[in-house]
Amino acid sequence: MKAIIVKEPGGAEQLSVTEQPKPEPKKNELLIKVKAAAINRTDILNRENKAGYLDTPILGVEVAGIVDEAGAETDVEPGTAVMGLVNGGGYAEYAVMPADRAMRIPENLSFEQAVAIPEVFLTAYQTLFWLGKLSKGETVLIHAGGSGVGTAATQLAKQISNAKVITTAGSKEKLDFARSLGADAGINYKEQQFDEEVLKSTDNQGVDLILDFIGASYWQKNLASIKVDGRWVLIGLLGGAEVEHVNLMELMAKRIQLTGTLLTPRSDQYKADLTADFASNVLHLFKDEKIRPVVDRIFPFEQIQQAHEHMESNKNIGKIVLRVD
Q1: Sequence-separated (6 or more) residues with CB below 8 Å from residue 94
Q2: Residue 242 pLDDT exceeds 80
Q3: Is 160 within 8 Å of 154 (Cβ atoms)?
Q4: Residues 6 or more apart from 250 whose CB is under 8 A from it?
Q5: Closest-CA residue to 114 (of 283, 268, 313, 265)
Q6: For all residues of the chain together, what is the average pLDDT?
């Protein structure tokens, strides 16, 4: 089968389409004929060898396609259209998926739309509700509002918790799009001081929850933006990993709960439990078109290098998808 591997750690030019053995499903696994895969920042980290999450040379952690073969002790029939997370190997014509992570694709969605759901919506659901404990009517600050997780989180926060959503992004286009998804306020971090704008929007109280993709460079402004007893979930490090001169008393004085998380290296059972909870509570919202996957651009399989470069340019709104079929 055709698959995409990394020749050696480095830039997008190291990605190569090669012939690889077709995987075989084990007990409780499904063999998926992949129709679409999606690009994630964890793929870039693995390409650069900065994060060793994968046990396969083939990149890709989420796919949408058709069940080609079902291993023993599975209850998913061959021919079923599914989407879900895989333990690597997604950039290929066939991939193996644990059966308890497979979600049936709503009939109103294409494969390219479906593959834009698993990683970002599961991450957003996990950070908002499992970790962030977002309650009805609270206020949440979502950084990177035009990203895949940002667009997913905005929709989930509005539809499930009727939260007040404040987003940050670096362009008017991204902020306008976030508003079209339900964001109540948008802040251009290139032109405005987001902490000042957050306080204006919250009567100087700050937000109940922060979804932080940025890390070090936003540390002080996030501290200023969060209210007493607020929750702060660190989900990315686009602005660096090391903070100088941290005053822990500032965290203590506001009684802030700071949680760090990564989804890809979580256990199989954790991902299965998260998938089941998400499917039970959210999939019907896709069927009813109350929320939607956001696809920025679809690349042909052979244009994997361009797809990675497009993500690294940080210009995308929503998911970057690879059409495998």
Answers
A1: 1, 22, 23, 31, 32, 33, 34, 68
A2: yes
A3: no
A4: 223
A5: 283
A6: 96
Mean pLDDT of 36-48: 94
Token pair belonging to 246: 């941290």
pLDDT tens per residue, range 103-136: 999 999 999 999 999 999 999 999 999 999 999 9
Tokens of 74: 């599975």
User: Model's pTM, two decimal places?
Assistant: 0.95
Specify burial of residue 137 (Cβ count, 10 A radius: 0-12, 13-18, 19+): exposed
pLDDT for 249 beyond 90: yes
Q: What are the tens digits of pLDDT across the range 275-285?
A: 999 999 999 99
Helix 118-125 to helix 148-161 angle, to the nearest 10 degrees? 50
CA pair distance 44, 49, nearest whole angstrom: 8
State the residue for tokens 């501290």: 223
267-299: burial string, b at 16+ Cβ within 10 Å, e else: eeeebbebbeebbeebbebbeeeebbbbbbbbb
Confidence of residue 55 (pLDDT cuts 50, 70, 90): confident
What is the residue whose two structure tokens read 């979580």?
Answer: 266
| Residue 299 and residue 34 in contact, taking contact as beta carbons nearer than 8 Å | no
- Tell me the two tokens of residue 132: 């962030």
Euclidean distance between CA atoms 57 and 18, whole angstroms: 11
Report the candidate in 160, 107, 119, 120 with the shortest Cα–Cα distance to residue 138: 160
Q: For the chain, give the number of residues.
A: 325
Per-position DSSP letters for 47-78, written without gaps between them: HTTS----SSSB--SEEEEEEEEE-TT----T
63 forms beta bridges with: 37, 84
Alpha-carbon dihedral sign for residues 262, 263, 264, 270 = positive
Which token pair is 208? 């109940």
Six-digit token string for 170: 């670096």
> What is the per-residue pLDDT for 80?
98
* Average pLDDT of the segment spanning 255-261: 97
Q: What is the mean pLDDT of residues 29-42?
A: 96
